[in-house]
Structure formats: C-alpha cells, structure tokens
Write a structure and sequence with these properties.
Layout (H helix, E strand, L loop, with lengths): L1 H22 L6 H18 L4 H11 L42 H5 L7 H4 L20 E4 L4 E4 L25 H10 L9 H9 L29
Antiparallel strand pairs: 1-2
C-alpha cells in the first residue's frame, strides 16, 4: 500500500517541478518589448502619410500656396473700402415697416373690410381664415429731412439722422410665413439650401485668415430663429 502513495507523491512533485519550471521560463526581454512599442510609435509619426507629421507638413506648405490654390484668398473690391466691419442685425419680431417708415394710405381706407376679390382669388394664405379682415396702421406719419422720408412716432431719434440712413422701400415678396420669410431675407430664397449673406460676402471678398471663421453669427433666445442654421449657412 506504500508504493501507490509514493507514486502519487512522486507524480505530485513532478507536477510542481514542471509548474515551477514553466514559471521560470523567459517570456522575452524587456528590451524587445520596448523596441516593438517604439517601432509602432515611429511608424505612426514618421512613416504614415496621414499621420501627425504629414498633417503638420501639409499645414506648413499651405501657407505658401498660390492664390489659385486658395479660393478664399482676400481680393481687392471694385471700389476702395471705406469700412472695416459690417454688423448686420436681423431682428425678427420687430414692428412692421407699415408701422415705422412705409405708410399705406390705401390700406387704411380698407381697414376692417374684406380683402378685394382680385387679391385672394385662387390663392391660399396660411394662418388666414376666410373671414379675416384687412388691418390698417394706426400710426401717424410725417416727412423729415431733406429726403422727405416718412417716419412714424415710433422712430423719434431717426428724425434727426434720417438723411444719414439708407431706407429701402422697393422690396416686396409673397413669402410671409415665419420660416420661409426668414430664409428669404437671409438667403434670398424661401427654402433651405442656399448660401447666406455672410457666405456670399466671403465668396466675393475672401477671408484674411485661415484659422478663424470669415463671419460670425450670434443668435439670441433659447429657441433660435425659424429656419434654423440655414439662415447663416453656406
């Protein structure tokens, strides 16, 4: 009965010695491990054409590109520039021009009446019910300045600078819904997909820097304008 016990003890000792031998076996030197890691980093930085080194070189060479290779290169305008900056304020929700500087005496004659048949025949107007009435202005207008501009009592300060302001009363449109109207005002078309005023100015005059945006838009309010980012897109 002692032999099997000795055999098991011997085999157990052999297993322990084998495990100990395996644990002491070399796994590869630390030098080889570090070398493989360094080769990988060197390949990424130096030999990969789309790596950081290649991108840095491309950026440095782009500063020496010709004007033909840089379409946004600043160009001279048709006339000498007299201003350095342009601040364009698009104040949606402001009073109508009918209340500020564009009186409509004929509209006032139809105040409270049904629209003429030739105005609404075979046409659909969103948000307007069939029984809607015409609404004239309740403001009082008078002419000011050498230009004889019509101003209401809503613009008392402009009476003294009326000749220094450019007044445009020749524009008209059939677009009056909020979203399409804002797109039409900022992009010249009542549907998304057209470049905005800032994009057109950049296209015509170029940009003096390649690291900053050519024009900046600040939007007030939590909701943002109707039409979204298309109002200042490119």
């Amino acid at each position: 009965m002692k032999r099997p016990t000795l055999a098991r003890s011997a085999s157990k000792g052999a297993v322990n010695n084998s495990v100990q031998a395996k644990s002491n076996a070399p796994r590869g030197s630390e030098f080889q491990h570090n070398a493989a890691r360094d080769i990988t980093r060197r390949y990424f930085l130096q030999q990969c054409r789309v790596g950081l080194g290649g991108m840095a070189l491309t950026h440095l060479l782009s500063d020496q590109a010709t004007a033909a290779d840089r379409p946004m290169q600043p160009v001279e305008p048709h006339f000498p520039a007299t201003v350095k900056n342009v601040i364009y304020l698009f104040m949606a929700g402001a009073p109508s021009q009918l209340e500020l500087f564009s009186p409509k005496p004929v509209l006032n004659q139809y105040d409270g009446q049904d629209p003429p048949a030739e105005l609404v025949a075979n046409r659909r107007f969103a948000f307007l019910r069939p029984e809607a009435k015409l609404l004239g202005s309740v403001r009082s207008f008078a002419q000011y300045g050498e230009c004889g501009m019509d101003l209401s009592e809503c613009l008392p300060h402009h009476r003294s600078i009326v000749d220094d302001v450019c007044w445009i009363r020749s524009m008209k449109t059939d677009v009056f819904n909020h979203g399409p109207a804002k797109l039409f005002m900022n992009c010249g078309f009542n549907a998304p997909g057209r470049p905005s005023m800032g994009a057109w100015v950049t296209y015509g005059l170029g940009c003096e820097t390649q690291d900053l945006p050519a024009f900046v838009v600040f939007s007030s309010g939590k909701k943002g304008p109707s039409g979204g980012n298309s109002n200042w897109g490119s």
